Amino acid sequence: MRTGVWLVGARGSVATTSIVGALALRAGLAGPTGCVTELAELRGPALPSFADLVFGGHDVVATPLVKRAEALADAGVLPGRLVAALADELATVERELRPAPAGGSQADRATATIRDLDDFRRRHELDRVVVVNVSATEPVARPHPAHADPATLRAALAGPEEVLPVSSLYAYAAVTAGCPYVDFTPSTGLRLPALRALADERGLPYAGHDGKTGETLVKSVLAPMFAMRHLAVRSWSGVNLLGGGDGATLADPAANAAKVESKQRVLGETLGYQPQGGTRIDYVESLGDFKTAWDLVTFAGFLGTGMRLEFTWHGCDSALAAPLVLDLARLTAAAHAAGHRGPLAELAFFFKDPLAAPTHALAEQWTRLCEFTRRLHAGGSDDQPG
């Protein structure tokens, strides 16, 4: 099943690491550590192989992909030997990267994006193309009348006003081109009613939002523990220190607020109440592509006895995210092939703020993901949302 993976933000750290990782796996130069779909519980014939994945994408920067990979190797994110060994393969992917459409109306930019997607699919004789957004976090979109239904949206896009945030414009183009869409960021993407309706009209599956790679991953394990043991969480406060491009983007207060909102939701929805405290995200340039999170949890046990828990998470954002991007592309392609449409709630395991998910508890999400994947491998299809 030849599958295109079109990355929005294709020269960014996460995208570059994803591409290098897939090429290394294809060449047998690295193992699949971190790739959930390579676990025995999920591996099977419904998923496209790494050899079946063909990469392309858009970006606003023009730095050659091999140079981005070399910079990540210098920063300790990628093994330098892999970048050197895969230079020719990276040059091949480089030829599939396009500048982000600019100028004209949003309708013009959407048309240019659709043209790139159609050309990519046709030239490589792909069965399908999955569009994955791994670009910078956007501020929360302001409501607009055009967000309500597809017909109003189409008319508004032709005007001079910027109706959609960039992530949603890409989602619109992806759906119009018949491509499933995955949002690995907390940006608006397909969350607008008009875009969800358009995806439903086209019978397409989609997934998101905001990949769960660090502090929130730990929260999704610990919060159910407190709930199941009937312990009262009094406060939960976290400090996140990020470097790299993501950290620089989140220095903007509006983008920072969108990210914090995504990270906080797991507690209220898992515990059934919102404890005191919050999450703070600070940009620390010297951390590069690495991030550190420190959390303090205070809670009460039997007879009100006060206790506390602290944890520190230090990780490499791109190395944590990239295998999940590959997992999501493979799973979404398989879901599309099986006839699934609407929000893929079964992929909640991968997201901080998952669409249509009945739970934020990681263990329950894992069970649902395994059941979903077993159905895919058994040839199961679904013409109902999710």
Automatic annotation (TrEMBL):
GO MF, any single term: inositol-3-phosphate synthase activity
Classification via InterPro entries: Myo-inos-1-P_Synthase (IPR002587), Myo-inos-1-P_Synthase_GAPDH (IPR013021), NAD(P)-bd_dom_sf (IPR036291)
Pfam assignment, any one: NAD_binding_5
One of the protein's GO biological processes: phospholipid biosynthetic process
UniProt domain Myo-inositol-1-phosphate synthase GAPDH-like: residue ranges: 214-318
Transmembrane stretches, start-end: none
Similarity section: Belongs to the myo-inositol 1-phosphate synthase family.
The protein, known as: Myo-inositol-1-phosphate synthase
Organism: Micromonospora echinaurantiaca
